[in-house]
Structure formats: C-alpha cells, structure tokens
Amino acid sequence: MTAADLDPHGSDAPGVPPRRTPDAQAFVDMQATPEFQELRRRLRTFVFPITAFFLAWYAIYVLLATYAADLMATKVFGNVNLGIILGLGQFVSTFVITAIYVKFANRELDPRASAIRDELEGPRA
Fold it and tell me: What is the SS3 assignment for 85?
C-alpha cells in the first residue's frame, strides 16, 4: 500500500470513501448554527472564569511576595515558609486546572465538536 492509497484524513480502509473537504463558506455557515454557538458558549463559560481565577490567584501571589514579605516569610514548619507553599501551590493549581479542563473537554466539548466535524466532513469511517 502506498501513501496515495490512504485517504488524507488517515483512513486506510479499502473501499471507504474519504471524508469531504468543506469549503470556506461551509465553515462560515457552520459558525452561524445553534450547535456551533452552543459549543462556543460552553467553552467560554468554562475558560473565562477559570482564566480569571488563575490570573487573580497569580496576581495575589505576586503582590504578597512584593508587598507582604514578612507574611510570606512566616515559617510554617522547619525552613518552609508561606511563600514556598504558595509558590508550589501555583504549580499544583496549574495541574489541577489542566485536569479539570481535560475532563470538561472530554465530557462537554469533544462530543459536540465531533458532531460538528461529522456534519461538515461526513461521518468517520
């Protein structure tokens, strides 16, 4: 089998028609559909609040480190102070937000995006 035998979308099943390639107008038309608008609304209602939360959390950390050095230097245990714990919390929160987003995308966004793609390109083989 050669590369020419494969469909451009990765299907190598013989006798399976390739997915169609939509033109620019098809994409514009799809953006006006209620399904696409719902996908966009769900994405925005998740992403914007989470982004605002994370940016506020980061800004508070930076402001505390800059203007409340004594507070950040407060020993929690041994040589570990509040600044270290909050700094490590930045990393932890990044991973937690990523995990929450992946779960949300798998549950809410991906099925809708797949349905829209199938409508544009035809069902997957």
Answer: helix
CA separation for the pair 104, 35 (Å, rounded): 17
Given this model, what pLDDT does residue 22 score? 79
Condensed to tens digits (0 to 9), the pLDDT of residues 73-96 reads 999 999 999 999 999 999 999 999
Q: Which residue bears the tokens 């006006």?
A: 32
pTM for the whole thing? 0.74
CA angle 120, 37, 48 (to 5 degrees): 125
Q: Are 54 and 97 in contact (CB under 8 A)?
A: yes
* Lookup result for tokens 């997957």: 124
Alpha helical stretches, state H, the chain = 24-31, 34-67, 69-72, 82-104, 110-121
H-only helix segments in 77-109 = 82-104
Give tens-digit pLDDT for 54-64.
999 999 999 99
